[in-house]
Specification:
By secondary structure, this protein is of the alpha/beta class. It has helices at about 15-20, 35-40, 55-65, 80-90, 105-115; strands at about 1-5, 25-30, 45-50, 70, 95-100, 125-130, 135, 160-165, 175-180.
Length: about 180
């Protein structure tokens, strides 16, 4: 199973975002992420959060569509996206794509990226994407597909990364070490 999570951030290109969706994807929305699912003509399986970013019209549509809603108190320690990821993990997916988690508020963007460092996610393929940019943590090895001229950044997180090897990039790395402070 593949899970798509819509966060409540920016989604710069609806067409590119829509191209990521498959008919058999399980759709979760983190609170106001419902707006993106509705804009793409999708019916979410579950909406999760404190619902502070959901409009009355969106609430009406969710009810009409029979969408399951897991409502939480506004007084909570987790973000709506974190709650949604936690729920996604209980479904044991093969992959989780989180859309609309980049852009808008820098604090939210950084918090969303840091969510990927959670060790509980280390055995899952979890990516933040919007169809234009994609962010994921490489814990062992990764294959990045793209075209000539695409930008690929390798950024060490929480310490140095040793033994980095790349091929078919402008700069080839052969068992190099990447340092976060450089």
């Amino acid at each position: 199973m593949r899970i798509i999570i819509f966060a409540n951030g920016n989604l710069p290109n609806l067409e590119k975002a829509h191209s990521l969706i498959r008919p058999d994807d399980f759709i979760l929305c983190a609170d106001g992420g419902i707006r993106h699912a509705l804009a793409l003509g999708l019916t979410p399986n579950v909406v999760i959060g404190d619902l502070d970013s959901v409009t009355e019209e969106e609430r009406r549509k969710m009810k009409e569509m029979g969408v399951e809603v897991m409502e939480f108190s506004m007084d909570k320690n987790e973000t709506d996206l974190e709650l949604t990821i936690n729920h996604a993990l209980t479904l044991e997916p093969e992959q989780i794509l989180i859309l609309a988690a980049l852009g808008g508020r820098m604090d939210q963007t950084l918090a969303n990226i840091s969510l990927l460092s959670d060790l509980r996610l280390s055995t899952f393929d979890v990516r933040l994407t919007d169809g234009v940019e994609e962010i994921f943590f490489c814990r062992d090895q990764a294959k990045v597909e793209g075209r000539s001229g695409d930008i690929v950044s390798l950024i060490p997180w929480l310490g140095e990364v040793t033994g980095v090897f790349t091929e078919n990039l402008r700069w080839h790395l052969h068992h190099e070490t990447l340092y976060p402070e450089k």
